[in-house]
Amino acid sequence: MKTMMKRTLPLLxxxxxxxxxxxxxxxxNPEANPEAKKHKATLVARVTACHEPAKSKVVASLVNLExxxxxxxxxxxxxxxxxxxxxxxxxxxxxxxxxxxNPQFGDYQTxxxxxxxxxxxxxxGIKRFNGTPPTLADLRAMLTAETALNxx
Length: 152
What we know:
single chain; alpha+beta; Immunoglobulin-like; eight-stranded antiparallel sheet; 3 helices; 42% strand
């Protein structure tokens, strides 16, 4: 009985998750996507695990720390030919916030913070926020870490 439960419960959990769906954003390297590379995108955002990813709304902003204030500058985001995939343009340096909503999920939002420098995207520093956007403390920590990394 225990063996059967050990085998059945993981499959049941996977089935429930698959039926319930979810809203996720994967941030990728534009070098791996010929269309994004051709248009010189900074990032590729791929919305996955929802029933209609192409209906998602993807916005991206360059996040800056100016004194004690956090500012956002909206970046250009355009859908690519693959449904559910967008190209993010601009921001050679700093922290980019990519946020995704989808009508099927109501007010639920998933966000990702990505560090970008002249050398490219710092993949190890990506922070994901599912269900609630990053707080001011989260943004400040990411921006402060970015500044510390750029010091000689």
